[in-house]
Inverse folding.
């Protein structure tokens, strides 16, 4: 049976409070975990969030590990291998280059029945692929954050998923407060008036 | 990246088998034009503009001819016609000769991605041939559809039923319109508009939709448009020489999304991050020369190359070089500032010194080392400067840059020039 969305929207929305955007219980799989940006950012996020990254993927580099201060993160060739190894996650983070994002989202949606949220950090995803990513999210009842996202974080519970909010010292910037910040980080995508 | 008109539009429509009138380009011979008129009774003569500019009919820029002499007169009138819509001015580079399509019905059709429906959406009406904005809400159907399954015949059928369109229109439109989705989705388009589609009767009275005008936009982040083999010069009108040069460095990591705001501005402001860009662009207004976002942790070589191009085009006229961004998440400040400092030094060696006030506001990894690298350079070049760290509000730093620009305009530029040995002291 299809997972019901929360009320009041004409399209599927799976979370109904800010507290569910990034939780301490979320288990994360990072696609292209050994890429240039991810290999710098993911260890910081992992340590800040109490070790929430279950595994990552990097085709052709399965068997390697990404070292972090909170323990090594195993790397598999593909999501299915990680699941076959008994690992489970509900949140995907996509660090793939723009041309691979749509396929990465399809992999997460198709292979892992437990997936609930996908955070896409990649910039410059084409409109064509964004259309299909959106449709995959809707038809599989998955909340999608991004693309061109800064990731999501909860300063109260010390969780950072995808992106580099707070840089390499998130505890400096991600401090408890009473205002939720939603940033679109606008790029100059058209001529200014 | 926009494309308008039937010269190239007809070729794109043929990719998906959508009917369009016979079209001749600017290099058509008199014999070809005469034969076209004989086959169809009348031709429309339309100027060819680069990019997309509308309201040509209302501006009297569409000629019609039933004989060769008139067609040639219209060609002469329209070949280099100028057209102004608001602040946009376009100059024609040639004309097309398009066979007239006899019809009783005109249809408007477009596909675009709707932020309202958060899905690809068709807009359709059988009251076409006019500005869509002039029609009442009940005369237009706006229908979202699934991107994965695409635009299907039933979506068109339902929309036409809702519009209570004449029965004779429904079957031909249901058969032909869905194939336009393939053109949009498979070739990197963001939008497609056909207005009008004229419904031409065949010998037995059945109607055939014929696209009589064409407008589309392409997503420059999507290489699928290159499959069409369109000539590069079609999109050259969209960019200045500076933008063309800098966009050659474009990658998916950014740093090359740069636009000219005012080619006569006095503040050259390479900004880091979308937030800083928005604030600076809005507050500086016409004083800013470019709008940019150099965030995203650019490597040294790329940052230096981008800065080199910016300086080459704009530094000589700038009063203030304003490097501004928030506290970066992962951009290495030392790397970016060292690259920009080296590009600045290169410029002074190649082109000679230029009076300049350097203002900087930034935070992030390796900030102090980055500031140190830039300070060493501007001091060696003899330029006045003021640096602000991440504890200074960006808005205050912007105010300081504007004050520096005013000071330069009020005689400061002369003083700096004297200090650089560019003018004799009076």
């Amino acid at each position: 049976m299809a997972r019901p969305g929360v009320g009041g929207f004409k399209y599927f929305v799976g979370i109904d409070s800010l507290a569910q955007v990034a939780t301490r219980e979320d288990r994360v799989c990072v696609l292209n975990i050994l890429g240039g940006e991810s290999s710098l950012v993911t260890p910081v996020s992992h340590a800040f969030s109490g070790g929430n990254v279950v595994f990552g993927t990097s085709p052709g580099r399965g068997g390697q590990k990404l070292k972090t201060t909170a323990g090594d993160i195993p790397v598999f060739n593909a999501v299915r291998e990680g699941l076959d190894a008994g690992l489970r996650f509900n949140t995907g983070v996509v660090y793939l280059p723009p041309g691979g994002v749509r396929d990465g989202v399809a992999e997460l949606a198709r292979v892992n029945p437990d997936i609930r949220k996908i955070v896409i950090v990649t910039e410059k995803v084409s409109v064509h692929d964004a259309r299909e990513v959106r449709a995959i999210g809707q038809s599989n009842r998955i909340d999608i954050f991004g693309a061109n996202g800064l990731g999501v974080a909860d300063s109260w519970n010390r969780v950072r998923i995808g992106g580099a909010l707070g840089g390499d010292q998130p505890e400096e910037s991600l401090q408890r407060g009473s205002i939720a910040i939603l940033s679109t980080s606008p790029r100059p995508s058209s001529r200014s008036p | 990246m926009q494309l308008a008109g039937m010269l190239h539009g007809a070729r794109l429509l043929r990719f998906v088998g959508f009917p369009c009138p016979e079209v001749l380009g600017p290099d058509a011979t008199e014999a070809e034009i005469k034969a076209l008129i004989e086959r169809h009774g009348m031709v429309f003569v339309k100027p060819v503009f680069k990019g997309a500019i509308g309201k040509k009919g209302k501006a009297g820029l569409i000629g019609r001819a039933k004989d060769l002499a008139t067609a040639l007169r219209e060609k002469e009138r329209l070949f280099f016609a100028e057209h102004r819509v608001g602040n946009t001015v376009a100059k024609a580079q040639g004309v097309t000769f398009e066979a007239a399509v006899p019809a009783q019905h005109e249809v408007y059709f477009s596909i675009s991605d709707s932020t309202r429906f958060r899905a690809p959406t068709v807009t359709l009406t059988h009251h076409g041939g006019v500005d869509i904005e002039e029609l009442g809400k009940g005369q237009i159907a706006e229908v979202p559809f699934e991107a994965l399954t695409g635009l299907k015949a039933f979506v068109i059928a339902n929309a036409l039923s809702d519009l209570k369109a004449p029965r004779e229109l429904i079957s031909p439109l249901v058969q032909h319109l869905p194939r336009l989705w393939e053109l949009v989705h498979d070739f990197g388009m963001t939008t497609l508009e056909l207005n009008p589609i004229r419904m031409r009767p065949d010998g037995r009275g059945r109607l055939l939709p014929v696209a009589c005008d064409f407008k589309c936009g392409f997503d420059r982040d999507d290489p699928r448009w290159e499959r069409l083999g369109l000539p590069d010069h079609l999109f050259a009108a969209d960019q200045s020489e500076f933008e063309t040069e800098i966009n050659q460095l474009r990658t998916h990591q950014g740093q090359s999304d740069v636009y000219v705001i005012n080619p006569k501005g006095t503040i050259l402001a390479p900004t880091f991050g979308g937030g800083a860009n928005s604030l600076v662009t809005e507050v500086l207004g016409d004083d800013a020369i470019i709008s940019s976002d150099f965030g995203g942790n650019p490597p040294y070589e790329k940052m230096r190359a981008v800065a080199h191009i910016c300086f080459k085009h704009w530094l000589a006229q700038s009063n203030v070089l304003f490097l501004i961004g928030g506290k970066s998440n992962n951009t290495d400040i030392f790397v970016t500032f060292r690259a920009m400092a080296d590009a600045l030094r290169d410029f002074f060696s190649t082109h000679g010194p230029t009076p300049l006030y350097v203002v900087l506001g930034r935070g992030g990894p390796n900030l102090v080392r980055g500031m140190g690298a830039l300070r060493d350079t501007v001091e060696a070049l003899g330029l006045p400067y003021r640096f602000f760290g991440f504890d200074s509000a960006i808005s205050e730093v912007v105010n300081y840059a504007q004050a520096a620009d005013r000071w330069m305009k009020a005689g400061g530029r002369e003083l700096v020039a004297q200090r650089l040995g560019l003018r004799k002291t009076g």
About this structure: The mean pLDDT of chain B is 88.
